[in-house]
What we know:
Elements: E1 7-11, H1 22-36, E2 44-47, E3 51-55, H2 61-68, E4 76-83, H3 87-96, E5 105-112, H4 121-134, E6 139-140, E7 147-153, E8 158-161, E9 165-166, E10 178-182, H5 188-198, E11 202-209, H6 216-230, E12 236-242, H7 244-253, H8 259-277, E13 282-284, H9 297-304, E14 311-312, H10 320-330, H11 333-336, H12 343-346, H13 358-365, H14 370-380, E15 382-386
Parallel strand pairs: 5-6, 5-7, 10-11, 10-13, 11-12, 13-14
Antiparallel strand pairs: 1-3, 1-4, 2-3, 4-8, 4-9, 7-8, 12-15
Helix pairs in contact: 3-4, 5-10, 7-8, 8-9, 8-14
Amino acid sequence: xxxxxxxxxxxYGELSLKGxxxxxxxxxxxxxxxxxxxxxxxxxxxxxHDRMYIYLHEEDAKAVSDILSKxxxxxxxxxxxxxxxxxxxxxxxxxxxxxLNTDKxxxxxxxxxxxxxxxxxxxxxxxxxxxxxxxSNWKVDVKNPDVKIIVEVHHDSxxxxxxxxxxxxxxxxxxxxxxxxxxxxxxxxxVASYLMMKRGVCIECIxxxxxxxxxxxAQDKVLxxxxxxxxxQGEILVHIVPFTNLQLAIYQNADESYAITLxxxxxxxxxxxxxxxxxxxxxxxxxxxxxxASQTLESMNTINDVTNMPIIRPxxxxxxxxxxxLSKKIGTYDTSILPFEDCCTIFTPKxxxxxxxxxxxxxxxxxxxxxxxxxxCIDEAQCIKISPVKQKEEEDxxx
Length: 399
């Protein structure tokens, strides 16, 4: 028999805590895994109450593992050899799963789910260990082994594993409904997007473009950031909002010190409109308390005033170093620091107000018909579908 790794065993982790929602969470994870691995057509899937199994056939195990590592809801996963639940087959597969020519320490950890199997876990451990000790110079170390051989005995088959890869954790994307994320070209908002998806929230992104003041390169940078994080969800819709006329109107009708605050209020109005259009239940941003003038508590309060939709700020209490470290971990940092400015950085006033007043904002906004311009931005937003695989993106006329 061929004793090569032929399966992947997936452990759910945090899903085990979800009580009555458990089945719906597992169902969502199952669908997300299949969607993420749609590029591997011969894979077969089986889900159980505490595990999911993928039969690899001849697919590339490393390539499949690389994609699985980005699927939220997975605590860990292992490459496995699947054999008949027969003690001789189990011992042979365990022997084949390790390189006995290199001396190491080991431990066998058997788990007998099938209580009709004629050997208890301790007997399986001893039989496998005895075979290894007789045929090699390996030594048993139950506390800190070089190799841990895991044996899971089920009614119809047994899985042998010697590795354990960390999953992305969190909840399956989709169990937390949908939110619109304001995606700039900076470091913070891609991290916020990642954290939203990790809690099971499906996201769509909104980017505010101000040509000719912002370049096509700046927009392409944002689309690349969306591509880098899309692997955690499968694909992401990015709504490109034409923001130039509205920004110019702000500068024409308001004090320069209030320009950023008014811009953010308009952005929230547009985001709320797009959220309603796309049936999203919240808005998310990459704001962190005190990082810039528009992110003081006074500013956030004034900006929040324009909508009653929940505004979630996943990185609000993280410091910059923490955010940077997480951006490096998820692979967005190098793109985020490319020198292409977005609409907020280009239009930043010299002395922005840090404690803006709602009544002053309302007074400035009364000077022109901003509601019509906000609606125009919503109506003229361009929707682009972004996939993890780098390719020429096309507009997706969803409306």
